Amino acid sequence: QVQLVESGGGLVQPGGSLRLSCAASGSIFSINAMGWYRQPPGKQRELVAAITSGGSVNYADSVKGRFTIARDNGKNTVDLQMNSLKPEDTAVYYCRIVADNRLYWGQGTQVTVSS
Questions:
Q1: What is the pLDDT of residue 60?
Q2: Bridge partners (DSSP) listed for residue 71
Q3: Of 24, 28, 29, 89, which residue is the least packed, with the fewest Cβ within 10 Å?
Q4: Contact at 8 Å (CB) between 24 and 99?
Q5: What is the mean pLDDT of residues 14-24?
Q6: Is the pLDDT reported for residue 112 higher than 90?
Q7: Tens of pLDDT along 29-49?
């Protein structure tokens, strides 16, 4: 069984920064893609950023230049550094991985950007 544990969410003022972390544990042979998704209130879940095992990254247009995704293959972790946060970044953020051809989601962590 694979588990994803997320941390780092919270309340931040506009223009501030947060760092989200996600650690995968359990019976894992290899992890392909790792990424972060978010679900704003009343909206559908959307891709924020993703990174392949080779290090190729993909960002949503709305976060380019502000967010940075990084992974540590040795520790099975993926982080999301979020800078210059805006109120529209408010959402529940979910970690997602593809490991051994299976898809796993974290439980979600709330990020609220408000003054």
A1: 98
A2: 78
A3: 29
A4: yes
A5: 98
A6: yes
A7: 899 999 999 999 999 999 999
